[in-house]
């Protein structure tokens, strides 16, 4: 992506696997698409690993509830995947229909993360649930991989949350951050509930950065300004408000390593702008 | 020995001149009049608080049983300490059996309010604790701990899987283990192309990993259980933090009551155990959780409340409770239910007190007849007195109709003084038929029907004044009070007594006041009282007037003039509700030769009662003994009440029947202008009867309707002279000689009044003087005996020519 003055988010891609988390992601994605006037694309990835495992001569599975072994057959796996895809499509149609958003739906087979990343490259923002059909706690493997490796913006949605207000945005005064600030202002949609988290190490620069943000936000509704010097301050602000946090990767106070940590620490919705 | 009519002054005892103008001058009477015995019994019974010394106040209606009893009880109760408060509390170890708690008077209310305040405070303080940052942090730590434990278990499996080049694949229901190359699962085709040994090795590795995975998955529930325990412990800690200081405050305030302190301990333990009940409103629960809560058996927070059954806070003295509808439930209390999603549910807050609860420690006044007419009530009351406790059992359980689980509240010890009010016959029936009755009701307060008139007239006047003032009536004039007192004497049916039944007197006063009002009198005068009396008679007089009309028109044959053999005017009383009136009846007798029997035709057709038959047998015996003691009594006589179709009882006509027989035997006619009442004994003495005033007035009304001739009158027993309280018009007719009342002590006196011929006293040889009535009767009987003998003697053989 280039650092243009205004990102043009036309295509919102949502990863669907018919899980509860993906349904939350769907509703947030539909809301986002509606706010941005973008098209909504649903993607269902049939996990090729699962299909292959089911084709092995000794294939069996263990129930996650009881640990009891159960047969794993290719035919039934195919049927189940088709049923899940149909359910995901129906949910997408319903959510998009409700908000009158243009939509499309695709089913692909392959490695889940790879397929998602490749599809994300063709979209402007990738929306996915924080926890999928997870093996471990914290963000699912897929979510973690997509968030850190996606070439496009990623919106990560926690369980049971929606894309509500207020909106928090991390801002360091860089040109890339200006772009992020503009996007945040669009998401606030003039509700006047935008909070700008000014990331600066010292009070002097912070004032200048805040002033720059204020000028940029003129005529776009009122905003609050909070200076955050450390990652922990950012996390605390997001936690206490439960708001959507928008930030770009180039924030001077926040490197890539910090993004990994933020993923673990924040459960509120997170929009990483690239 | 000519019998003289009674003088006018003997016909109605007038009230002497009373020393006041109107009742406005008179002070109220303090206590009841003429009920000293009952008062004494009430004082005794209320003073002796021992088992079995309950009181039965017995007497006719309207004598003031209720008001007097209430007054005595109220006076005594006020001087005694107030009774205790009683509460029902939830029993946390067994909610089906609520606990009873006794508290000093006035402590129940504050305790109840304290507990209500506690619930309010807990509602605020518990959610506050659970919404605090500290709690959230600690809960997050616990959740992280669980997540880490889970991760640890799964990561171990995953890393061992990676060592063996296999991976865990998520399937729709769980996990599969499959061989990998790089990050991709080996394609089945590629797998089949692997050498056999390689395939077997991989399969072995997969089996080993699956085994480990199984162990890890089976360990998950245990991890979650441990986590739940840790959360529960945290919740307990938070709850104790939120509850502890509130509880400490309450414990200090009620430190003097070990029961309350123990209850507070139980409440605290329960609150901590069920802390989520307080979080319901604060937490956004899903619909399923809300529905579960609605259906949950225990009411969420009301279980910490107090059901204050009896609150004697502010009461002065022991309670005096009157239960006018003594049903089982009104006595014992009840357990109410409310509808909850189509089912009926209950808990300790729905226990309602009965009269026994409210009267506990004091006095309970019940009407005996109403009590006995209520199913289960009497038996329950005796059981409660016997056991010394109030137990609330639903009637359906007592009847064994229902076995559904319901509450069994802890019984409350009972200490009550019971006072039953009832008529005498109720008391005597209970005493006769209920063996437990006298053991419980050892004190009988027996109310008098009447009081002596001598010396009490002024007191009675004050009673009239008291009643008039209580009912806000106009003042009564001296003459009005005198008439009311005379009426009280008439109601007592005794010139020497005054009725103790206040109710009818009170009614008369009220009606007299209404008469005075319609006549626009400022006070109530004698004419108003008389108008009220006349009004009562007129309103109830339909049947009496119809009877008079039948006599006047000749439908009922009653002669009031002339003379007839074997026919006498008897007198009877008809009682219709509270109203009684007299009416004459024609009694006739016929005699013939026979075997010494007097046939009571009423008895033969079963229209005569046993007392009437007794009277007839007595007079048959009197006849035989008096006139035919030394010869066979060869008489067959029949007696009948003419035109009587409804049954006859009582012996007040036996003298009239005797006179009819004597007339029939002697052939002497009887004056039809005289009516007769009185019973006779075997020696010919005339004995007192009831309803003498009504009987005289009944015959007077018949004679007056035809015109008073001056020789008409009524013959009554001498013993009844003291009962005379005749109507004013009767007295006036007698004083002007138009009507007469004679008395007879002996039948001979009556015979003379009725026949005008001397009766004749028996000589030493038993013979009666010639020409007397008795001599003629004896002669006739001798004649009949001779005839009988002649019939009985063998016929002489016919002489042969």
Share of helical residues of chain A? 40-55%
Tally the structural domains of chain B: 4
CATH class of the largest domain in chain A: Alpha Beta
CATH topology group of the largest domain in chain A: Rossmann fold
CATH superfamily of the largest domain in chain A: HUPs
Q: What spatial form of chain B do the alpha-carbon principal axes imply?
A: elongated
Order of helices and strands of chain A: EHEHEEHEHEHEEHEHEHEHE
CATH architecture of the largest domain in chain A: 3-Layer(aba) Sandwich
If you had to describe this structure to a student in words, what would you say it looks like?
The complex is a heterodimer of chains A (274) and B (801). In chain A, α1 links the parallel β1 and β2. In chain A, α2 (48-55) packs antiparallel against α3 and α4 runs parallel beside α5. Residues 1-6 and 132-137 of chain A have low confidence and may be disordered. Helix content of chain A is 44%, strand content 23%. Chain A is built from 9 helices and 12 strands. Chain A is elongated, with a radius of gyration of 20 Å. Chain B is of the alpha/beta class and 801 residues long. In chain B, the strands form 10 sheets. Chain B has a 7-stranded mixed beta sheet, with helices on both faces. Chain B has a 5-stranded parallel beta sheet with strand order 8-13-16-1-17. In chain B, strands 3-2-7 form a 3-stranded antiparallel beta sheet, covered by helices on one side. The two termini of chain B are 61 Å apart. The relative contact order of chain B is 0.10. The A-B interface holds A 47-50, 52-67, 69-70, 72, 77, 80, 84, 111, 133, 135-138 and B 144, 147-148, 150-151, 154-155, 158, 167-179, 183-188, 191-192, 203, 206, 210, 213-218, 220.
């Amino acid at each position: 992506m280039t650092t243009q003055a205004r990102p043009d988010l036309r295509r919102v891609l949502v990863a669907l696997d018919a899980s509860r988390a993906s349904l939350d992601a769907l509703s947030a994605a539909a809301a986002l698409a509606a706010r941005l006037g973008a098209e909504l694309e649903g993607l269902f990835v049939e996990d090729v690993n699962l299909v292959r495992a089911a084709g092995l001569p000794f294939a069996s599975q263990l129930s996650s509830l009881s640990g009891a072994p159960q047969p794993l057959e290719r035919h039934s796996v195919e049927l189940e995947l088709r049923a899940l895809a149909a359910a995901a499509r129906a949910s997408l149609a319903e959510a998009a229909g409700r908000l009158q958003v243009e939509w499309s739906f695709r089913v692909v087979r392959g490695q889940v993360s790879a397929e998602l990343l490749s599809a994300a490259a063709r979209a402007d923002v990738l929306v996915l649930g924080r926890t999928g059909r997870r093996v471990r706690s914290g963000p699912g493997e897929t979510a973690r991989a997509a968030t850190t490796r996606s070439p496009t913006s990623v919106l990560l949605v926690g369980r049971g949350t929606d894309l509500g207000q207020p909106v928090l945005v991390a801002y360091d005064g860089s040109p890339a951050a200006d772009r992020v600030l503009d996007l945040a202002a669009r998401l606030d949609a003039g509700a006047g509930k935008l909070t700008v988290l000014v990331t600066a190490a010292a009070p002097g620069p912070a004032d200048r950065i805040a002033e720059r943000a204020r000028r940029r936000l003129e005529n776009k509704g009122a905003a609050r300004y909070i200076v955050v010097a450390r990652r922990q301050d950012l996390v605390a602000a997001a936690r206490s408000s439960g708001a959507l946090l928008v930030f770009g990767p180039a924030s001077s106070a926040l490197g890539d390593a910090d993004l990994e940590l933020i993923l673990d620490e924040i459960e509120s919705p997170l929009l990483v702008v690239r | 020995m000519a019998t003289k009519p009674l003088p006018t002054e003997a016909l109605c005892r007038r009230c002497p001149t009373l020393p006041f103008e109107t009742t406005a001058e008179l002070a109220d009477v303090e206590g009841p009049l003429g009920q000293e015995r009952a008062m004494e019994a009430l004082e005794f019974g209320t003073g002796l608080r021992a088992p079995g010394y309950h009181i039965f106040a017995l007497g006719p209606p309207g004598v003031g049983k209720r008001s007097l009893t209430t007054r005595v009880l109220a006076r005594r109760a006020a001087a005694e300490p107030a009774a205790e408060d009683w509460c029902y509390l939830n029993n946390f170890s067994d909610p089906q059996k609520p606990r009873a708690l006794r508290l000093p008077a006035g402590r129940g209310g504050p305790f109840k309010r304290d507990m209500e305040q506690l619930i309010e405070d807990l509602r605020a303080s518990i959610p506050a604790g659970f919404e605090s940052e500290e709690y959230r942090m600690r809960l997050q730590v616990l959740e992280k701990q669980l997540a880490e434990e889970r991760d640890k278990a799964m990561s171990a499996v995953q890393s061992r899987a990676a060592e063996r080049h296999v991976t865990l694949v998520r399937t729709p229901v769980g996990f599969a283990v499959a061989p990998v190359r790089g990050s991709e699962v080996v394609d089945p085709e590629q797998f089949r192309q692997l050498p056999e040994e390689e395939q077997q090795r991989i399969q072995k590795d997969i089996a080993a990993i699956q085994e480990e995975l199984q162990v890890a998955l089976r360990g998950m529930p245990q991890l979650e259980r441990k986590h739940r325990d840790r959360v529960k412990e945290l919740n307990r800690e938070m709850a104790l933090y939120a509850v502890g200081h509130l509880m400490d405050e309450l414990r200090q305030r009620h430190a003097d009551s070990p029961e309350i302190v123990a209850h507070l301990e139980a409440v605290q333990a329960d609150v901590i155990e069920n802390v989520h009940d307080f979080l319901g409103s604060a937490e956004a629960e899903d619909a399923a959780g809300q529905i579960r809560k609605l259906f949950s058996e225990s009411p969420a927070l009301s279980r910490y409340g107090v059901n204050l059954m009896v609150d004697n806070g502010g009461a002065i003295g022991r309670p005096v409770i009157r239960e006018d509808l003594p049903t089982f439930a009104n006595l014992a209390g009840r357990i109410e239910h409310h509808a909850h999603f189509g089912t009926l549910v209950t808990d300790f807050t729905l226990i309602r007190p009965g009269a026994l609860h409210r009267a506990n420690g004091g006095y309970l006044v019940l009407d005996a007849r109403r009590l006995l007419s209520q199913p289960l009530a009497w038996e329950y009351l005796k059981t409660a007195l016997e056991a010394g406790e109030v137990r609330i059992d639903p009637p359906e359980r007592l009847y064994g109709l229902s076995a559904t689980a319901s509450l069994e509240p802890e019984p409350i010890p009972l200490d009550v003084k019971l006072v039953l009010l009832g008529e005498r016959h109720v008391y005597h029936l209970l005493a006769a038929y209920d063996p437990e009755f006298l053991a419980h009701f050892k004190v009988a307060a027996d109310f008098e029907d009447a009081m002596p008139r001598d010396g009490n007239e002024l007191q009675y006047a004050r009673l009239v004044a008291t009643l008039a003032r209580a009912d806000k009536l106009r003042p009564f004039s001296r003459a009005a009070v005198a008439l009311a007192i005379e009426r009280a004497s008439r109601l007592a049916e005794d010139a020497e007594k005054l009725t103790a039944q206040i109710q009818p007197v009170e009614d008369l006063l009220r009606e007299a006041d209404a008469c005075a009002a319609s006549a626009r009198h400022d006070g109530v005068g004698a004419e108003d009282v008389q108008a009220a009396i006349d009004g009562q008679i007129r309103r109830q007089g339909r049947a009496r007037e119809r009877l008079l009309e039948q006599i006047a028109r000749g439908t009922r044959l009653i002669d009031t003039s002339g003379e007839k053999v074997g026919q006498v005017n008897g007198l009877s009383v008809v009682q219709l509700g509270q109203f009684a009136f007299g009416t004459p009846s024609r009694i006739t007798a016929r005699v013939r030769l026979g075997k010494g029997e007097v046939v009571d035709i009423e008895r033969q057709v079963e229209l005569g009662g046993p007392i009437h038959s007794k009277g007839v047998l007595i007079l048959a015996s009197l006849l035989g003994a008096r006139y035919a003691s030394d010869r066979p009594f060869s008489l067959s006589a029949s007696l009948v009440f003419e035109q009587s179709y409804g049954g006859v009882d009582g012996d007040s006509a036996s003298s009239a029947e005797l006179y009819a027989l004597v007339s029939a035997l002697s052939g002497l006619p009887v004056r039809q202008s005289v009516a007769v009442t009185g019973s006779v004994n075997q020696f010919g003495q005339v004995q007192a009867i009831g309803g003498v005033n009504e009987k005289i007035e009944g015959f007077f009304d018949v004679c007056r309707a035809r015109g008073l001739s001056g020789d008409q009158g009524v013959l009554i027993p001498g013993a009844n002279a003291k009962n005379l309280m005749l109507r004013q018009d009767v007295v006036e007719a007698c004083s002007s000689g138009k009507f007469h009342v004679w008395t007879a002590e002996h039948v001979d006196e009556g015979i003379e009044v009725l026949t005008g011929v001397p009766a004749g006293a028996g000589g030493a040889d038993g013979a009666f003087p010639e020409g007397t009535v008795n001599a003629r009767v004896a002669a006739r009987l001798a004649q009949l005996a001779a005839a009988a003998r002649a019939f009985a003697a063998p016929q002489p053989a016919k002489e042969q020519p």
